[in-house]
DNA sequence: GTGAAAGCGCTAACAA
DNA sequence: TTGTTAGCGCTTTCAC
């Protein structure tokens, strides 16, 4: 007996998507297996063109949509990649990580499951749990600024990659920006203009960025045969106020080239310098870091800087997770921070008459 | 045999999720049904405390994780809410929409499925298709700036809400910022300081923001009994350059209060004004729009502005989708843009001796 | 109190 | 060439 409904047992809710493979099969007068084959375009199964066509027509007419849940149940795995972020909002940057991850995931047939945790432990556990229950292919654990981050225990139940952060014990795969190369690149932009005395306004915040960029700065000097002068390195709050307040010290140093910890500091520095009637880059050349475009691309003059590769971080994270980029189980991959040359490092060359 | 490590390098490989309800049942010596009951804490089923406890112990010991796919298959629906965005990256704002949507969804037990389409049609269709196949509860269709947007056909196969955009035919539910109120609020901030001649640097871009903010500006003037003078409304490119270039015109107008279309324009204006030795707010008071914090909170002086409620947009979209906030099938809900008072509208009061 | 069993929509052997 | 059938992991009704 297989009568489904002639009783008063109407489906409670007119289910939006009632069309199943079963319906297709019945409507086309074939078995579900056959329907499944043509729905999935299985070419290795020999079916009459006639049948194939007929079934396909029914599929189109009824507007059949395969049920991903069912497929996943059968296949035992899903096409989900989880992305847990500590702060989607705090910074424009986080958005770029999501963007890169999403693009790359999509490219390989995966979908992003996003969770924001505001750095809150319970939210984090819950997010990971939910992802695990959804049989995610793996999880990207990301932070909005580059730092060490403890790996939540639950993460280890699946594949995961740290993005923009790394396990303090260095026992997990991670993708982070190459701060050292970035610091060096920034400094080189100034050195390339002939400057020999380059000040560095570093951040007061203890973080890989602080250490790495300083190391890069030193490396650049060394490569140029310039002695490192600790007096040229200042610490400042990493924002506009910090940059503005550093003006005095910079002027006292008598340098005419400054590498700022980030674009916001550079913005503050612009302000302070201008208030004293100094011109950029003629009196003082400046490079920033981050390439936070709302700022860097629109300062006057536009700011030369070095790009924090957030998009790439997300994309590379996915590639590492899916095994497209090979990586040791404890790999710490550094992504380059490319230079973005604008007008704060060298004045536009005057047109020759 | 249970030797975990006596080999040299055996990184604990993530246990493929073998633990099913079936395993629990077997290990606890009960049926899957019973296991299911205790796993879900069904209190309306009569089970011995002893049994309940025993099964629970097994569940904990084996680290059982329910399979969301299977649950969803049975229940016929998922706990997913799709969010398709035309540009996660282009602006920091989009991130806030995601953030708001994610928080609100989470609050109701839903998870966000995110797709970025870069405004590209095929990508959009594909994204929606994927969401539909995953049996999403509904879809949030969002844009990074407030505008009219055609509703992709496929969207209509499920519940959906437009976020930060609306169907040109006004036949769908939508949540957008209240540009008119925003424009009025911004203008009022200036009027409240006693200014009677307020210039408005509007954008050249044809969009709801242009029309709405102007309307709000006019409404504010009217409410204050001030005649609208079209000469006080300028058009400018909506970024720093536009603001900077508008300085001449502003000065020619002889006003001492300016409402800028957005914070970036205000930033450019600051620059131009300062170059001419003018002080803000003493010589000229300024309000922006958007509250793009990297800029507004760190200009000198910090910029008074009006907030584009992106977070609320995302959250309200979810609430409308889930029916938590009632809404007509063609409701166009406007979310208020609250004022953010900082120091560009009035100088800090000097301390009285 | 607890278990057996019927599916949810789909895939993939294996038959026919 | 196509249909039958056994699950995938879980919920839930209905017997025992």
Give an overview in words:
The structure is a homodimer of 353-residue chains. Chain A has 353 residues and is an alpha/beta fold. The first copy, chain A, has 3 domains: 53 residues, lambda repressor-like DNA-binding domains (434 Repressor (Amino-terminal Domain), Orthogonal Bundle), CATH 1.10.260.40; 126 residues, Response regulator (Rossmann fold, 3-Layer(aba) Sandwich), CATH 3.40.50.2300; 130 residues, Response regulator (Rossmann fold, 3-Layer(aba) Sandwich). In chain A, 39% of the residues lie in helices and 16% in strands. Chain A has 13 helices and 12 strands.
Condensed summary:
Two copies of one chain form a homodimer. Chain A is an alpha/beta fold and 353 residues long.
* Count of separate DSSP helical elements of chain A: 13
Q: Major beta sheet of chain A, specifics?
A: 6 strands, parallel
- N-to-C CA distance of chain A: 97 Å
**CATH topology group of the largest domain in chain A:** Rossmann fold
Assembly annotation = homodimer
Helix coverage percent of chain A: 25-40%
Number of domains of chain A: 3
User: Which radius of gyration of chain A do the C-alpha atoms yield?
Assistant: 28 Å
Mean pLDDT of chain A: 91
Low-confidence stretches of chain A: 1-15, 348-353
Strand content of chain A: 15-25%
């Amino acid at each position: 007996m297989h009568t489904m409904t002639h009783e008063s047992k109407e489906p409670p809710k007119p289910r939006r998507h009632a069309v199943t493979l079963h319906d297709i099969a019945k409507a086309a007068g074939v078995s579900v297996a056959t329907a499944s084959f043509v729905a999935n375009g299985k070419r290795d199964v020999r079916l009459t063109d006639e049948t194939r066509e007929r079934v396909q027509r029914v599929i189109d007419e009824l507007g059949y949509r395969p049920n991903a849940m069912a497929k996943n149940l059968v296949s035992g795995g899903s096409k989900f990649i989880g992305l847990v972020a500590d702060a989607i909002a705090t910074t424009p940057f986080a958005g770029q990580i999501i963007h890169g991850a999403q693009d790359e995931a999509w490219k390989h047939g995966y979908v992003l499951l996003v969770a924001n945790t505001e750095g809150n432990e319970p939210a984090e556990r819950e997010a990971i749990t939910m992802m695990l229950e959804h049989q995610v292919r793996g999880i990207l654990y990301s932070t909005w600024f580059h730092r060490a981050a403890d790996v939540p225990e639950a993460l280890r139940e699946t594949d995961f990659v740290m993005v923009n952060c790394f396990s303090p014990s260095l026992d997990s795969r991670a993708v982070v920006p190459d701060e050292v190369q970035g610091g060096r690149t920034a400094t080189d932009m100034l050195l390339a203009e002939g400057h020999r005395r380059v000040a560095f306004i570093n951040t007061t915040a203890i973080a890989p960025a602080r250490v790495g960029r300083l190391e890069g700065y030193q490396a650049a000097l060394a490569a140029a045969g310039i002695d490192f002068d600790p007096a040229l390195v200042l610490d400042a709050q990493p924002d506009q106020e910090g940059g503005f307040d550093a003006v005095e010290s910079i002027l006292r140093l008598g340098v005419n080239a400054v590498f700022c910890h980030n674009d916001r500091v550079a913005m503050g520095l612009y302000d302070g310098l201008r208030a004293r009637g100094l011109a950029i880059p003629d009196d003082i050349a400046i490079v920033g870091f981050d390439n936070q475009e709302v700022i860097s691309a629109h300062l006057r003059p536009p700011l030369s800087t070095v790009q924090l590769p957030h998009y790439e971080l997300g994309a590379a994270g996915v590639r590492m997770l899916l095994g497209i980029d090979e990586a040791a189980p404890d790999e710490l991959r550094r992504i380059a921070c490319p230079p973005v040359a604008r007008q704060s490092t060298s004045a536009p060359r005057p047109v020759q008459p």
